[in-house]
Amino acid sequence: MSSREASIRLQWLEEANAATLRQFWAETRGSEPPRTLTARLMRLALAWDVQVALSGGETAGTRRAWNRAIRARTYSRSPKNPNGAVPRMIGEGTRILKDWGGTTHEVQITENGGVTWNGQSYSSLSAVARGMTGTNRNGPRFFGLREGGKR
Amino acid sequence: MIRKRCAIYTRKSTQEGLEQDFNSLDAQHEACAAYILSQKHEGWTELSNRYDDGGFSGGSMDRPGLTQLLEDVRGGRIDIIVVYKVDRLTRSLADFAKMVDVFERAGVSFVSVTQAFNTTSSMGRLTLNVLLSFAQFEREVTAERIRDKVAASKRKGMWMGGSVPMGYDVVEKALEVNETEACAIRMIFAEYLTTGSVRQLSARLNDMGVVSKRRTDRHGRGSGGEAFSRGALYHILRNPIYIGKTRHKGELYDGLHEAIIDEETWQRVQALLADHGGKQINAPRRCAKRPLDGLLFDSMGRAMRTTYASKSAQREGTTQTKRYWYYTSKTSCIEDRNCIERLPAKEIEDLALSSLKTRFCDKSWLADQVGQAKECDTSIADVVRAADAWSAEIAANTHGIEAQFPRGLIDRIDAQKDQLHISVNLHALPGLGRSLETLVASFEAPFQKRQSGRAKPIIIVPEGAPQPDPNLIALVADARRWADELLAGKSSSIQQITEREGLRSGSVSRILPLAWLAPDISSAILEGRQPPHLNATALRNLLELPLDWNEQRQILGFPHP
């Protein structure tokens, strides 16, 4: 789909009425839209589909990160923290100091989620954790970026 | 004149008539009070406390009023007990003897208003015993009569009271089918036949929202209306009342009430129950204790107990559970929890064993230990021989870890920061004729305690690094969650979500569009790369989110990708 085509579609969505939108939704998405959705919400969802087809949608990683954020928000609501916990995102250049086996290890995040430890580069925090402890474990959790389920 | 404090005790064995304004208890009380008044010249005064037992049999001592009375007698708050008749106090000769004992010790006398007797003379005590023998006889005859009546009624198939079984109501002391509950009962039997497991049946009923019968007891307390426990389900599945029978002492009789379950279903359920339930579990329970349990102490002197963690691992297509054993500090209060120490069990045991082995090879050390002990009749040679024998056995390693640590050999191990302080009782070595005295020798074994992984890592974020805004993320996360729920049909309407979340009307529909933010905008928010002015309030107050991602970027201040 070219960007011209896409903008024509968007324009059409903008002008279509609720009944047309419902019909279009059923044709393109293969299911009836929830009755509670207003025309505006249907427009947004359908416009999202159009633009995903044009320029790509979310990466699986981002979707997972959002699902984690949603879970953290639904399950960790405590009176102390009414907003719910949101996992910490770590960017390039972050250093993590972790005590393990009696020494302090320094781990650095490089670009694109890579990690260096002891002068070697690893593809993920989990890989570093495996190298450090000898067992498979959840890297972000081991390095304190995410709360564990049980405490 | 000495004041005599008089307590009045009244009792009635049945509930009947207790609801009347002036019941039998009041009548007894009044008679006693009048008697006390007549003895006013003797200094008798009535206590304000009343000791009444309505609906309690004289055959048992388990009566609230009597308990209170005896307590006050022991506490010396009473001088005379006044009863209407002796059998009010008890109908059991044995209990009466016990009570008289208590009264005598506290110096309390008792008086029966309508029966004149004097317990100070032997003749009076005989009269009293005869009286009580008859009281006990009367009670036993009554009990027999009632038992016979119940047995006869049960044989005729009458329902003789008790808690009303689910599926029935009681109308004029007879069971009448309650159609809605009977449906539930039929479903329970049918479901049990399909699932074949009471555990699954319980889960199924829970899912379907079938709950137990609501009952109100005589004190007006309600119970039931809850999920069935497995015990309750077994009880229902085995209750012959549902095939229209009554049960008395293991015998079944045709009942007068209507059956809910047909004979065939019943037989199949009984067969299934006999086949499935209530069998003994064959697997023996293994003791989860390691040899150093209770002997090992952490650096703060707290005893360490055995704990374990399990991890399942796939090996050659089968799932196996690997168990990791530890010794963990036993804490006395919650505050201690933060500084729990945990040591790997196998490593500590091996270390203790190997250091013990080296010590026992050191004959001069052994000789010193035995020599230092005063008043010790064990010879050095015996100890050395026993130690050698033990070391040889360990080297052969034919037995399990339990046998390696003979009972009582290790007296105590203190796990300090860099060493184990081990105390052993040399007399516990096998082969040394079990002396009762202990011969304690202690030594140190160096050890490096590994850091536990629980220490919180330190995270250093570079300067100027993007800061994720938790409020902003929470806002978009909510929108995405609600949109997912609506699209998946988990929530039926925006209204429903608004109510569930306890939000003001309109908030959900205002936030929902954020579920369709352009992917680069949403991932930037997640990573904290949003423009500085963009916060949750700004996003919430956005009037209308444009359909076009480019326009979204423009309006929110994001760069074009």
Give an account of the 3D structure:
The complex is a heterodimer of chains A (about 150) and B (about 550). Chain A is of the alpha+beta class. In chain A, about 45% of the residues lie in helices and about 15% in strands. In chain A, helix 1 runs antiparallel to helix 3. In chain A, about 25% of the residues are buried. Chain B is α/β, with parallel strands linked by helices and about 550 residues long. In chain B, strands 1, 2, 3, 4 and 5 form a five-stranded parallel sheet that branches. The longest helix of chain B has about 35 residues. Classes of the chains: A alpha+beta (about 150), B alpha/beta (about 550). Chains A and B meet through helix 1, helix 3, helix 4 and strand 1 of A and strand 19, helix 14 and helix 17 of B.
In short:
The complex is a heterodimer of chains A (151) and B (561). Chain A is α+β, with helices and mostly antiparallel strands and 151 residues long.
Distance between the termini of chain B: 108 Å
Number of strand elements of chain B: 19
- Which shape of chain A, going by the Cα principal axes? elongated
N-to-C SSE string of chain A, H for helix and E for strand:
HHHHEEEEHH
Rg for CA atoms of chain B = 40 Å
Spatial gap, N to C terminus of chain A: 50 Å
* Biggest interface pair, counts: A-B, 53 and 51 residues
Instruction: Outline the biggest β-sheet of chain A.
Output: 4 strands, antiparallel
- Major pleated sheet of chain B: 5 strands, parallel
Kindly report the average pLDDT value of chain B.
83
Q: Residue ranges of chain A: pLDDT <50 for 5 or more in a row?
A: 78-85
The mean pLDDT of chain A is 80
User: In which range does the helix fraction of chain B lie?
Assistant: 40-55%
- In DSSP terms (H or I, runs of 4 or more residues), the helix count of chain B works out at 19
SSE inventory with pairings:
The complex is a heterodimer of chains A (151) and B (561).
Chain A: H1 3-15, H2 18-29, H3 39-55, H4 60-75, E1 95-100, E2 103-109, E3 115-117, E4 120-122, H5 125-133, H6 139-142
Antiparallel strand pairs in A: 1-2, 2-3, 3-4
Helix pairs in contact in A: 1-3, 2-3
Chain B: E1 4-12, H1 24-38, E2 44-46, E3 51-54, H2 64-74, E4 80-83, H3 86-89, H4 93-106, E5 109-112, H5 122-155, E6 168-171, E7 174-177, H6 179-195, H7 198-208, E8 215-216, E9 222-223, H8 230-238, E10 245-248, E11 251-254, H9 263-276, E12 296-297, E13 304-315, E14 318-329, E15 342-344, H10 345-361, H11 363-372, H12 380-396, H13 401-404, E16 410-415, E17 419-425, E18 440-446, E19 458-460, H14 470-488, H15 494-501, H16 507-511, H17 519-527, H18 536-540, H19 549-556
Parallel strand pairs in B: 1-2, 1-3, 1-4, 4-5, 12-16
Antiparallel strand pairs in B: 6-7, 8-9, 10-11, 13-14, 14-15, 16-17, 17-18
